[in-house]
Each structure stands twice: as C-alpha cells, then as structure tokens.
Amino acid sequence: VVVSLALVYRSQVDLQRELGQWSNNIRRDLSNKGSTVTRNAALAAGQAAEAMDFLFLTELIKSTVANDSEIVFGLIANQEGQVFVHSTAEKTGSTAKAPEYAAAMAQNKTMTRETTFDGKKVLEVVSPVLVGGFPWGTLHFGMSLEPLNKTLDTARQSFRKRIQSALTAAAGATIAMLVI
In which element (H, E) is residue 60 found? Predict the structure, then answer.
C-alpha cells in the first residue's frame, strides 16, 4: 500500500514538473515570437517616423494585429508615452506609461511584461523606435495568453486523469493484496 501511494505521489510530482516545463517553453516561444515581430516592426516604424509617414505607421499596426490571431493589440507611442497610433482607435491620443517603456528606450532593447488588455491577460512586448539612431518612441504588441492557458488547462486535465488512473490502479492492487 505504501509503495503504491509513493509511486502515485512520485508520478504527481513528475507530472507537475513536466507541466511547469511546458508552460515555460510555451511562454518563451510566445515571447520570442512577439520580440521578433515587434523588433522588425519597430525598424520599419523608425523609417516611417523619420519620413513623417504616419499613414504607414497606422497601417503597420492595423495590418499586424489583423493578420496574427495571437496579437490582440498594437500601439506606437512617443518618448513621453503619448500614443500616436493604436489598434483600438479610441485609445489613440491616450498616454501609455510603464517603467518597461522607458527602459526599452534607454537600453535600446526589446522588453516584455504581463499586463491586461480589455480584461484579459496579455504578454506585452515593447521595442524602441529609433530615428537617426536616437530613441523616438516605442512600439508595442500585446500577445494573447489564451492559447497558452488553454494548452495548460488541457494538460492539467490530462494529468488529473492519469493521476486518477494511477490511484485507481493502486487501490485495486491494495484490495487484491488484502483479499489474497
């Protein structure tokens, strides 16, 4: 009985560790994808900002959000956080501030943070927009965490079933040992 329970417990610990590794891998992949898309878009945005082509900036954000189901919002803000372009038109002209925005510009690197958008958790990826090699603003894309959470929920349900099966087998083995 003790051996059976120990094996079930060990299986549960292993499954939890495996789930954590899956979660980290999926989150890392989402972050890498978001970083790549955001950095590339920020390069194009820098050229458009230098040419004062705000129509291109608008199309860049709108088309990226429209053509990638994992991206739920996009925006371009100046150094002070004033939003010039937002995928949700009503948010254009608002102010976007977070320490990551200033850090992305100061360190000239892409940064991520978890935040909420329209009541849902997203991974926000922020890249500096450079004009003439100098920080002009930031470009942001919000990556949906829903696919990640759905995958993890499915894995959790599968793991629960496996643990229940192991417990049932352990109980059956214990009853068989007691009967014999």
Answer: helix 54-67
Q: From the centroid of its chain, how far is CA 139?
A: 16
Amino acid at 40: N
In Å, how far are 62, 86, 101, 145 from 29, measured between CA atoms?
23, 25, 22, 12
Strands 83-86 and 111-117, sheet pairing: unpaired
| Helix (H), strand (E) at residue 10 | helix 2-50
DSSP secondary structure letter of residue 74: E
Element (H, E) at 111: strand 111-117
Closest by CA position to 110, among listed 53, 29, 41, 61: 41
pLDDT tens for 20-38 read 888 888 889 999 999 999 9
Chain segment 124-164, per-residue pLDDT in tens: 999 999 999 999 999 999 999 988 778 777 777 777 777 77
